[in-house]
Write a structure and sequence with these properties.
The complex is a heterodimer of chains A (269) and B (264). Helices cover 56% and strands 10% of the residues of chain A. Chain A is of the alpha/beta class and 269 residues long. A five-stranded parallel β-sheet of chain A has the order 2-3-4-1-5, with helices on both faces. In chain A, helix 6 (133-144) links the parallel strand 3 (122-125) and strand 4 (149-155). In chain A, helix 1 (2-12) packs antiparallel against helix 12 (222-242) and helix 11 (208-218) packs across helix 12. The longest helix of chain A is centred in the C-terminal third of the chain and has 21 residues, at 222-242. Chain A is elongated and about 70 Å long. The model of chain A has no long low-confidence stretch (mean pLDDT 87). Chain B is an all-alpha fold and 264 residues long. Helices cover 75% and strands 0% of the residues of chain B. In chain B, helix 9 (198-211) runs antiparallel to helix 10. The longest helix of chain B is centred in the first third of the chain and has 55 residues, at 4-58. Chain B is rod-shaped and about 110 Å long. The relative contact order of chain B is 0.11. Classes of the chains: A alpha/beta (269), B mainly alpha (264). Chains A and B meet through helix 12 and helix 13 of A and helix 1 of B.
Chain lengths: 269, 264
């Protein structure tokens, strides 16, 4: 049932943020460990930045999964743009505040000061570049109370703007940059991901040459790689069902990689 | 994947677009190199033509033959006097340094080197041009007189057996006209002699002598042709003077043969 193998291989690369899909790579594991260590330190803010698709959301998700058993942690993977809504959600999650009425910054600060807790709750904010400057300033003030600890993940370009602001520079105690995978890392990433889903035949199809081709197209970006490989296996599935003579089952053909790249927009044809 | 056919088409277009610059570059390089080779080739040819025309312009050795044909039936007594004159002048030339005579063995191989040979030989003869010209002015007239013998060989009509030989001679004459190489005219003289056309053999031997009077074979062919043209006395006279001057062994043997009647 090769067709189902291509189908399940395709599903492996559906772009979702799930801590279960986290792939351990040497460099990534080191970075993740340093993030975990930073969280234990009495830091007010930790900045996690990198280009889109470098695994920031996956990092936060993994961190949430790993730490939630032992400490209070709240993850906000989608940004809460509205300020009042942000305070209300925070008050609800942190202090069990169930009132539906709107909260302002003064009120949340007041609640925050009143609450005494043994350990500082950790708040994970993904896509922080979408928060307004005013709200970011309020988050900074909240972290100054030392009653809340923030891990904010944002795109690199936004980080550069943020770091330029003096008041943030003094408060960010730790900043961690995530980068695209190298070619060797990309190969391990692809194969580990497939093997995790028991798609061993598919994993063996990726030679150094085909990984090199993929790397050239995606530049080692995890999201782009997922998108591309999803499309690759979609094409394989199609050929398998319609015209098997057009595919080589032993290795991924460059033609199909390029077709998938055209389909996903990585190649402008 | 709904439209795989469209995707295949797009991929094909992409590949063509991708390889197009390489293909254009390769084609352009090929065209450029072909053009370059062609240009260099034509330049080489034009240089060669220029070089050969220069030689032809500076020397017009075949003119005497043309004149010979026009002015026929001249006094035969002049032949003796003129030849005597030539020999006298030759003996008076002081700087005849080369004792060794040029011996040619005509073959088609040497024709390949004609161009270079001709230039070299032409250059090597340059210093003696004054003497040669002095000597050959009369020979030009001399040739006019030789045409008288055109009537004589009529008795000895010669059938040329192979067309190839005639073609060879014509080809060599053509080459000779281009580069004025005495080895070529000597070759022609020998060929004509072999074919029995002694008048032409005599003429080409004379022409060879005009260009370079040190070639033993030209004297020998010249003398042999004279004998064949029933001018035994003149042949003996000419040859004996040449033998006195050059001490050529071959010429001496021939002279003896003519005198004894061994050579007819």
């Amino acid at each position: 049932m090769k067709s189902s193998i291509y189908s399940s291989s395709k599903d492996v690369f559906i772009d979702t943020v799930n801590a279960k899909d986290y792939i351990q790579l040497d460099r990534v594991s080191t970075i993740y460990q340093s993030l975990k260590n930073s969280v234990k330190k009495p830091l007010k803010m930790i900045l996690l930045y990198g280009k889109p698709g470098t695994g920031k959301s996956m990092f936060l998700s993994k961190l949430y999964q790993d730490l939630s058993k032992n400490q209070e942690i709240h993850a906000y993977m989608s940004p809460i743009i509205d300020e009042s809504e942000f305070y209300r959600v925070l008050a609800h999650d942190l202090y069990g505040f169930n009132d539906d009425k709107e909260l302002n910054f003064t009120q949340i600060m007041k609640i925050n000061k009143q609450k005494e807790s043994k350990e500082t709750p950790l708040i994970l904010l993904d896509e922080a570049q979408l928060y307004s400057d005013a709200l970011m300033e309020k988050i900074r003030l909240l972290s100054d109370t030392r009653k809340l600890k923030f891990v904010i993940a944002l795109h690199k370009t936004q980080t550069e703007d943020l770091i330029a602001k003096e008041h943030f520079q003094t408060r960010i105690w730790e900043s961690i940059e995530l980068k695209n995978a190298s070619m060797a890392e990309l190969k391990i990433y692809i194969q580990k991901k497939l093997m995790k889903a028991n798609c061993f035949d598919s994993a063996n199809m990726f030679s150094n040459n085909s990984v090199k081709r993929i790397y050239k197209l995606t530049n080692g970006n995890y999201r782009d790689t997922n998108k591309l490989l999803y499309s690759v296996f979609e094409i394989y599935e199609h050929y398998y069902n319609k015209d098997m003579s057009k595919i080589n089952m032993d290795k991924v053909s460059n033609k199909i990689i390029e077709m998938a790249a055209i389909h996903t927009g990585l190649i402008d044809a | 994947m709904h439209n795989i056919h469209d995707l295949e088409q797009r991929w094909l277009k992409y590949k063509i677009k991708f390889y197009l610059p390489y293909i254009i570059t390769i084609i352009f390089t090929i065209i450029l190199s072909i053009a370059l080779v062609f240009i260099l080739d034509t330049k080489k040819d034009s240089d060669a033509i220029l070089a050969s025309t220069e030689i032809v312009q500076t020397q017009t050795p075949l003119k005497p033959i043309v004149k010979k044909k026009i002015v026929q039936e001249k006094v035969p007594e002049h032949i003796e006097n003129k030849v005597e004159k030539i020999i006298k002048k030759q003996t008076s030339v002081e700087n005849i340094a080369q004792e060794k005579q040029l011996v040619l063995t005509p073959s088609l191989d040497f024709m390949k080197k004609l161009k270079t040979d001709s230039v070299n030989s032409y250059q090597s003869q340059k210093p003696r041009t004054n003497e040669v010209q002095k000597v050959y002015e009369p020979i030009v007239n001399e040739q006019k007189t030789t045409t008288k013998f055109e009537s004589i060989p009529k008795k000895q009509k010669i059938n040329i057996s192979t067309k190839e030989t005639q073609n060879d001679i014509q080809h060599v004459i053509k080459r000779f006209k281009k580069n004025n190489n005495p080895t070529l005219s000597l070759f022609v003289a020998k060929k004509y002699y072999k074919l029995g056309d002694y008048r032409k053999a005599y003429n080409y031997a004379l022409i060879t002598n005009e260009i370079n009077n040190e070639i033993e074979q030209s004297w020998i062919i010249f003398a042999k042709s004279l004998v064949k043209l029933k001018k035994k006395n003149l042949a003996i006279k000419t040859l004996s003077k040449y033998v006195n001057h050059s001490h050529s062994g071959n010429a001496k043997v021939l002279l003896d043969d003519i005198k004894s009647g061994k050579f007819k």
